[in-house]
## 1
Amino acid sequence: MNAPVLELVDGTKQFLGTRALDDVSFALRPGEVHALVGENGAGKSTLIKVLTGVYRPDGGELRHRGSPVVFQRPVQAQQAGISTIYQEVNLVPLRSIASNVYLGREPRRLGLIDWRRTNAMAAELLAGYGIHTDVRRPLGTLGIGSQQMVALARAASTAADVVIMDEPTSSLEPREVETLFSVIERMHEDGVAILYVSHRMDELYRICDRVTVLRDGKLVHTGPLAELPRIELVSKMLGRSVGDLRAHGATEFSGNHFGGDHTAAAEPLLRAEHLTSTPRLSDVSLDIRPGEVVGLAGLLGSGRSETARAIIGAFPLDGGTVLLAGKPVPTSVPGAVRAGISMLAEDRKADGIIPALSVRENIVLAALPRLSRFGVVSRARQDRVVATFMERLRIKASSPDQPVAELSGGNQQKVLLARWLCTEPKVLLLDEPTRGIDVGAKAEVQALIDELATDGLGVLLISSDMEELIDGSDRVVVLRDGAVVGELSGDQVNEDAVLAAIAAVDEGEAP
Ligand SMILES: Nc1ncnc2c1ncn2[C@@H]1O[C@H](COP(=O)(O)OP(=O)(O)OP(=O)(O)O)[C@@H](O)[C@H]1O
Ligand SMILES: [Mg+2]
């Protein structure tokens, strides 16, 4: 009865220069919620891709319900009852939301896809996940968090007995995370086996029965999770002794490394006034002073990303102005960047990483004008910048010349962060800066942001990680339905107050 439903025996997967999986044996049992953890680049996504037919292992055997199996393509794994939400949402952005939910299994009538039924079914299904929208819209018009919810609804609505989730919560709000957890609970009761990847420790301890730890492609531990103290789990992930972690103050790995409380000058550095874009933004105004980190809170679809994008000229406005040090900011991205505003976008796949370029090129891309003297870019200066950031952010790559597409998700995110941190902007807009970044590196990222703010940078911080938002922000502006509905500062910036601000507004919404 407890025989594994999906099993990899002595699995190996090699890439040029990297052994991403090194003799890993892993078994997923029916009805368990199994956590898969490890630092960025440890091999988690590779293991998932080997289990689901995206990659063929170079060595070892895959078994499904006890029998050897070879999945040539992911669709074969799907047909065998294995449903996967990959780390990078791999749906089709240009197709409608509804067609993405039922891609490959649309209801048909007389041999043709029955769109009316497809749309009606999708609308009903998604409503159950709190997504109320026109399902005929292209998927790509949704924010990355909502796209993740669509991927979740899709996975949960297939009759699968194995569901694999690679960082499903990395851009979800607390409320959506709760929805996800109730879906997982329901699946769990139905005997579905779940493999769950996350860098958020709280989540793992809340929902997982067992844990497997990977480090540098090797399996270092499998066992019950409840019995394993947190610090020991982190010590296994990082390959450092518990004593060593304690000596460093384990808080370094708790994710809270912001100094906070920057003394803000009286004059705003950035002033966004009456930003309006019907129906997504209405009359949003906010200020950022030099050295200040302003958090932007709100639910999915509340207009946080739109606000940031509007400030940098990437979101068309019906009205409103943006002033930097009193001067109007051009309403185009290149113009805004020249004026001193940089933005890390939430969707690294769509708006950030240039897959064909190397790690080095991706890092220096935006800073090139600054790194060049008389039109010539000094290679030595480039190398210095690249080396500094690769070390500080612990970017795991075989060399600076490796194509960035070959890096793990978390390491790609670090590359993007490095790109914007090294442009030395006056104002930095960060949309989910630590999305998918492991516990060790997260503290370093937060310390860097803090350091830059201390030097006078103004930061707008959007984060679905409540702890990060609270600890990192001097002030929090709360949005709902594209409008500012509250502002918290000083002692008010705490989790209860922020959640209350979001929730209180929410209650008004009840019919
Ligand atoms: N297609 C590829 N070509 C070359 N190297 C690759 C490729 N895919 C993954 N790798 C390498 O294999 C290693 C493991 O990557 P993987 O994506 O499995 O990490 P991960 O544990 O999922 O990390 P993260 O937490 O950042 O998502 C990394 O060093 C990565 O650079
Ligand atoms: Mg991964």
## 2
Amino acid sequence: MRPIIVKGNLVSLGVLIREDLKHAWVWYNDRDVRRYLSFSEEIFFYEDELEWYEALRREKKHEKVFAIIENSSRSLVGLIGLHRIDYHNGRAELGYFLAKEYWGHGYASEAVKLALEYAFDWLNLRKVYAHVFETNIASIRVLEKNGFKLAGRWRKHQYVPGEGFVDVLMYERFRA
Ligand SMILES: CC(C)(COP(=O)(O)OP(=O)(O)OC[C@H]1O[C@@H](n2cnc3c(N)ncnc32)[C@H](O)[C@@H]1OP(=O)(O)O)[C@@H](O)C(=O)NCCC(=O)NCCS
């Protein structure tokens, strides 16, 4: 049984286990998922995933990555992480993705809510921030529904295949 760290209604955040990597590896290479992530052109080998997992275990003070678990089926549906955790300044960067077949069910919105709960209540951070490309409407909606505010933008900063250069939006959410 996988330990659950933060429980929600539709999804929960659980401990990432080695068996998750074979799913994450496929999704991480899916161009529709990749398009709005950094290094969209990149191709990942399974060994890269294993190395990433080992590094994550070693660096766990500054990186917390969770498995997003669908409550009804107990299946892995995506990953969500708090990165660059900076305890001195009380902040971390949020990132997430879901497998395509699970899009559109409100899962990311709830996963972000749960990750914020973990960041504010358990890590005692004061601020979580995220970078999102201006054409990633679903992700912008997920952030805004969770109380993130637009803090600034880098203009025509990121090349998105099929879309050209787009603005990168900086979103931030302070602890209430
Ligand atoms: C972004 C992503 C995580 C969203 O996951 P999801 O579980 O489908 O999101 P949710 O269902 O919780 O919410 C999506 C919201 O965006 C809305 N939305 C989705 N596509 C939209 C579109 N093209 N135009 C307008 N709104 C849209 C949905 O209606 C929903 O809003 P609502 O709850 O008000 O109806 C998922 O699409 C994904 O993994 N994308 C690839 C990776 C990625 O972009 N990660 C984030 C990088 S910043």
